[in-house]
Amino acid sequence: MPINGSPRALDPAPPSAAGIGLRKPRRRPEAAPVPPARGAGAAGAIEAPVFPFSAIVGQDEMRRALLIAAVDPSVGGVLVLGDRGTGKSTAIRGLAALLPPMAAVADCPYACDPGAPAGACPHCAARPGSRATRIVPVPVVDLPLGATEDRVVGALDLERALTRGEKAFEPGLLARANRGFLYIDEVNLLDDHLVDLLLDVAASGVNTVEREGLSVRHPARFVLVGSGNPEEGELRPQLLDRFGLAVEVTTPTDLPTRIDVVRRRDAYERDPAGFCAAHARADRAIRKALAAARARLPGLAVPDATLEAAARLCLALGTDGLRGELTLMRTARALAAYEGAETVGLDHLARVAPSALRHRLRRNPLDETGSTARVARAVAEILPEAPSP
Ligand SMILES: [Zn+2]
Fold it and tell me: How many Å lie between the centroid of ligand 1 and the Cα of residue 178?
């Protein structure tokens, strides 16, 4: 099936934006308490079903990027740039709800996979053999802006460790996000060192906490999704290109779309169960496509011609290093897998090029065109036969 659900949405033309030059404003004060991860803890609590992913109107580029990250998490995190109230958090929750629930070691704070003992945490490694398992939903963890480093990476209680000779580690948000999604609203307002740290952990899949010669390491594999409002704060260029994909979201400006968004939101809030039931079929189709794409991905080769075109595109745009090509290739392959294609074609490349490359462009003083438009121009020059992104 097409990745956007409707033929009209197949070629979401991202609005031209004037680059990603964001400015940094004031910091926020300490934030509210950390909400629990969906599905983690909160035993007995009655939760409303999440807004169905298939019922989201518009925001095609964001939805496509999230689906691609779900098919192949190795594309790296997703940075969502744009207005507030455009359904970013809703989309992530909706997507996570479509992923198959995971088997996890019952008493493991990191929800280790019982089927993959090799990647186990110290807790599980110390208790090999048969373990009780539980089935848990894919976690979505919110990282609030005021969170301390201890709260994020986990706290190592030195005094307890030294006086009582026991390892006293209180796992943090990164532990809860293992095997799921970590969402940071307004990542551009987060302390730089915390963003650096998160990107390091996201890239390595391991969280290491060290205090005074003591250290704890545990698995922390998650898809990092950050959002930022370009009008509110800057993201350092050296951080930008560490996100796999960067997408733009905007408040819809056409009347029918706005009415549709409001009508659906209202219908959901009045009757969540009924609204979800009405979209269950469409959600099921996406769930099936996701599962099929994940199964198909390892066997999907990228033809030389596609790889060459990816390299030409990056050369023409002057992206730094080879990360652009690698991300572009993986993203195109995940899209092809999702769409059930036999091969990774130039059209896949063309459609994902803006998301994979717009945040990797060097500023060209002679070319004030926005980065999205620059990518589109390069695609038109180098892949003239492919549909425009
Ligand atoms: Zn474990």
Answer: 10
| Ligand 1 centroid – CA 120 distance (Å) | 5
pTM of the entire structure?
0.83
Digits of tens for pLDDT over the chain (389 positions)? 445 444 333 333 333 333 344 444 444 444 444 444 444 333 444 567 899 999 999 889 999 999 999 999 999 899 998 877 778 888 998 998 998 899 999 989 899 998 887 777 888 888 877 678 999 999 999 998 888 999 999 998 877 767 766 668 889 999 999 999 999 988 888 888 888 899 889 889 999 998 877 888 999 999 999 988 777 767 777 778 789 999 988 888 899 999 999 999 999 999 999 999 999 999 999 999 999 999 999 999 999 999 999 999 999 998 877 889 999 999 999 999 999 999 999 999 999 999 999 988 877 666 667 888 999 999 999 887 766 55
Query: Both 61 and 88 in a single domain?
Result: yes
Domain count, the chain: 2
3-state secondary structure the chain: CCCCCCHHHCCCCCCCCCCCCCCCCCCCCCCCCCCCCCCCCCCCCCCCCCCCHHHCCCCHHHHHHHHHHHHCHHHCCEEEEECCCCCHHHHHHHHHHHCCCEEEECCCCCCCCCCCHHHCCHHHHCCCCCCCEEEECCCEEECCCCCCHHHHHCEECHHHHHHHCCCCEECCHHHHHCCEEEEECCHHHCCHHHHHHHHHHHHHCEEEEEECCEEEEEECCEEEEEEECCCCCCCCHHHHCCCCEEEEECCCCCHHHHHHHHHHHHHHHHCHHHHHHHCHHHHHHHHHHHHHHHHHHHHCCCCHHHHHHHHHHHHHHCCCCCHHHHHHHHHHHHHHHHCCCCCCCHHHHHHHHHHHHHHHCCCCCCCCCCHHHHHHHHHHHHCCCCCCC
* Residues recognised as catalytic: 323
CATH of the domain at 374: 1.10.8.80
Check whether residue 289 and residue 347 sit in a common domain. no
Q: Report how far ligand 1's centroid is from the alpha carbon of 226 (Å).
A: 26
30 is a domain residue: no
Q: What distance in angstroms lies between residue 115's CA and the mean position of ligand 1's atoms?
A: 11
**313 in the same domain as 209:** no
Per the structure, the complete domain to which residue 322 belongs is given by 300-382
Same domain, 306 and 291: no
